[in-house]
Design goal:
The chain is mainly α. 81% of the residues lie in helices and 0% in strands. Helix 3 packs across helix 11 (196-204), helix 8 crosses helix 9 (158-174) and helix 8 (127-154) runs antiparallel to helix 11 (196-204). It is globular.
Length: 235
């Protein structure tokens, strides 16, 4: 695991040395703060349900910015060849980079805990439902990052990687709406199962379902395995 840790440390240093990382974190916190204030004080609803829903959609546009540089930046800096010649297996490189991006996600998620202070001061929220929502949010973010990292490995341009990732994530988010247009129960179940938003909705309602957890973990596993296979093919 020393190879994974080496890549992980490199990624974390890259994030904190880049102004883009601070900009993304700031935009994310400002956006989630706005959604929270609007849903709590403007609508008068003392829950996190609507805020989590807004955070989920916002995540579709933020995670591509985090993941787009993971491999595309290596291509641009001409360091990909050096990285591939190191005594590291492709899965170690992929996992190390993914853990670095996941750490950024966890830091961003933890920072949104500030929004809970006025909620507990002036309301009576359900802690279990909030914890469930955060678990779903993290799993959703991990799935989005794994897909974004895969697309970052497929192109040498960071902007192109982001532009590919955003519509794919939004497509998986809204694909659940296709259910209402299907007469086949099999197709309805299929579109419902691959929908990022429908599974996330269960967590928002306080339902930590094993089916939803498995779905997000399977998405991560498939994307990371494909990423490793592509690097192995390049080598």
């Amino acid at each position: 695991m020393s190879g994974v840790l080496a890549i992980y440390r490199k990624e974390m240093l890259s994030y904190f040395r880049s102004p883009i990382a601070y900009f993304v974190v700031a935009v994310f916190l400002l956006g989630t703060g706005y959604f929270f204030l609007y849903n709590i004080f403007m609508t008068g609803v003392g829950t996190m349900d609507e805020t989590f829903q807004s955070m989920g959609i916002f995540l579709m546009t933020v995670t591509p910015v985090i993941s787009m540089r993971l491999f595309s930046a290596e291509y641009s800096a001409k360091t990909m060849e050096l990285l591939m010649t190191l005594p590291l297996r492709p899965w170690q490189i992929v996992l190390g980079k993914f853990l670095g991006a996941a750490s950024m996600l966890l830091l961003m998620t933890a920072a949104t805990g500030v929004n809970l202070i006025p909620l507990y001061l002036y309301g009576n929220p359900e802690t279990k439902t909030i914890l469930s929502g955060y678990i779903g949010f993290i799993l959703l973010g991990l799935a989005c990052l794994s897909l974004g990292q895969l697309f970052s490995a497929l192109t040498q341009n960071q902007i192109v990687a982001a532009l590919i990732t955003v519509p794919v994530l939004l497509g998986l988010w809204f694909v659940g709406h296709v259910q209402s247009f299907q007469n086949s129960y099999a197709l309805r179940d299929f579109f419902g199962y691959i929908s990022l938003s429908l599974h996330f909705g269960d967590f928002i309602r306080g339902l930590v379902r094993s089916e939803a957890i498995v779905y997000y973990l399977v998405v991560c596993a498939i994307a990371l395995v494909l990423n490793s296979a592509y690097l192995q093919w390049r080598r």
